[in-house]
């Protein structure tokens, strides 16, 4: 599987480290809602189809990326810098 790093170009999966699900929303750090924290820490969806994920190019430029991957075929649909993706969504 190749991931196209926006800085380095297409690179082998071995150069990247999975950083987690990009679709989840972290509870407010000041929150004492244990149910919300429990869900955030322990509950993981297992979607079939397109999934937004954070990856780090740990064997290259060390950039954090937002990757959209099809969990059925493992096709990488898009990869962009996580910071720029966050700026787009606010």
Automatic annotation (TrEMBL):
GO MF term set: sarcosine oxidase activity
EC number: 1.5.3.1
InterPro entries xref list: SoxD, SoxD_sf
Keywords, alphabetical: Oxidoreductase
Gene3D superfamilies, per the entry: Folate-binding superfamily
NCBIfam families named among the record's database cross-references: soxD (TIGR01374)
The name this protein goes by in its record: Sarcosine oxidase subunit delta
Organism this protein belongs to: Nitratireductor thuwali
